[in-house]
Amino acid sequence: xxxxxxxxxxxxxxxxxxxxxxxxxxxxxxxxxxxxxxxxxxxxxxxxxxxxxxxxxxxxxxxxxxxxxxxxxxxxxxxxxxxxxxxxxxxx
Length: 92
Fold this sequence. Notes:
The chain is an alpha+beta fold. It has helices at residues 31-36, 46-62, 75-81, and strands at 2-4, 10-16, 19-25, 65-69.
């Protein structure tokens, strides 16, 4: 499954068993930025970026999800440990 927002961002979700692996590309540079609801990096549409982050968090509430943004140095550790984003996570 791919998730594409109107500004052209692409994320890929891979489902394996009971987990989803959310390859976020540049939706956020880190999981902390996702949880803060804070766009980071370059964005031409800040409101759209904030909505995208909120949609990702909403997905994590219904599907166990390992969040893997491309620039987060912790992504490899989360992948290896299958560390799921907390279901009670909230973006601002």
